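pls ignore typos typing on phone
zinc ion + seq
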Amino acid sequence: MGIVPDIRQLLNASQLEYFKHTPDVTYICDSDLRLLACNPAWTRFALANGGREIPDRWGPGSSLTDAMSGWPRAYYRKQYIQALATGEVFRQEYECSSPGEERHFLQVAYPLERGRGLLITNSLVREESPKSAGDAGGQYVDHRGLIVQCSHCGRVAWPEVEGSWGWAPTLAGRTDSRISHSFCPWCLEHYHPA
Ligand SMILES: [Zn+2]
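k done
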């Protein structure tokens, strides 16, 4: 599968560990927007959605924006370059539906130290239509009766799959006594490095 870079130079030990184990599709590109590494969740997603040729064709070594066409290509390119230049996190919600399923994701792109690249993670928008106003986010309630939300990116820990963070737009900006504010692993490392 193309280049196998030493991503240990770009990620610290806890980021590296999380990169391997998170069930959320995550990848790293360099400052030329060339894919350096994709996590195992990316490979599983690619095989399930596009077949065997996807990991070979769009894997490490390929350009991040080559897989896009039309306006998204120019748009994402501009946003990624800006994130690299400013060090500011870029967020974008997008649709990536399969024939049988309408799916939306929230993408969060974290600039790596000294503009060396981007770490890009994609969280599924998981949101049942609430039966009542008080029911919003019910599927995110963990065994303690709490919803764990990241104070920075607003994503919410998905209790059913360890290490997975979802995006629930209706929970954003809500004050809910069940919400416990914390940091997702990527925001913790980006905003509060040890
Ligand atoms: Zn976060």
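Residues 102 and 184 are 25 Å apart (CA to CA). The chain has a mean pLDDT of 89. more later
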